[in-house]
Specification:
By secondary structure, this protein is mainly beta. It is globular, with a radius of gyration of 16 Å. The strands form two sheets. Strands 2, 3, 5, 6, 7 and 10 form a six-stranded antiparallel beta sheet that branches. Strands 4-1-8-9 form a four-stranded mixed beta sheet, with no helix packed on it. Helices cover about 15% and strands about 40% of the residues. The two termini are about 25 Å apart. The chain has a single domain (about 1-170), classed as Sandwich (Immunoglobulin-like), CATH 2.60.40.2890.
Length: about 170
């Protein structure tokens, strides 16, 4: 009986991620552009994630901070799964009610991989850097559901990586 409830909860979660992704993609030009910033959209911090995982992923879930305050999140999903080597562009807009006063500004990223069965597995690192709007930061996502996932920055310049174990539990979004 418990496994049925767990399956129903997982199904409800996957459906909510799908709905969030569909609403975020409205007006986009196909699956490869589902997370691409468009000129009519607000500027945001751009993160480019190259997916090089051992297993297929059905999505990515990002949560982010600006000036140390949890500001927003986003679910990114392909039509089926990400293909090996696929670069996933993610534009994370600042809070319109509290935009950064100047650039660069303190920005932090949490990322979780979403497996084909809907399980969300957080990358156990919180990354922070001084961000500029529409200036991309590149990462590579590797690993598997069994071994865990790692997110490696292309450039470590000005980047701080903090393990989840060193963060207060109330600061973790996953």
């Amino acid at each position: 009986m418990k496994s049925r409830y767990k399956a129903l909860i997982t199904l409800a979660f996957v459906c909510s991620l799908c709905l969030a992704a569909l609403s975020a993609c409205t007006g986009q030009e196909g699956p490869d552009h589902s997370a691409s910033p468009r000129p009519e959209q607000e500027q945001g911090v751009v993160v480019l994630v190259t997916v090089q995982t051992e297993d297929k992923l059905a999505g990515l879930h990002c949560e982010y901070t600006i000036n140390g305050t949890l500001t927003g999140g986003q679910a990114i999903q392909p039509l089926k799964t990400f293909t090996p080597g696929e670069e996933v562009p993610i534009s994370l807009p600042p809070d319109p009610d509290h935009p950064p006063e100047s650039e660069p500004f303190p920005f932090g990223l949490y990322l979780a991989a979403v497996t084909e069965d809907g399980t969300e597995i957080p990358v156990p690192m919180y990354y922070q850097w001084e961000a500029r709007l529409d200036t991309p930061r590149r990462f590579t996502l590797q690993g598997s559901a069994e071994a865990g996932y790692t997110l490696t920055p292309e450039e470590a310049d000005g980047l701080t990586a903090t393990p989840f174990a060193e963060l207060p539990a109330q600061d973790l979004p996953f």
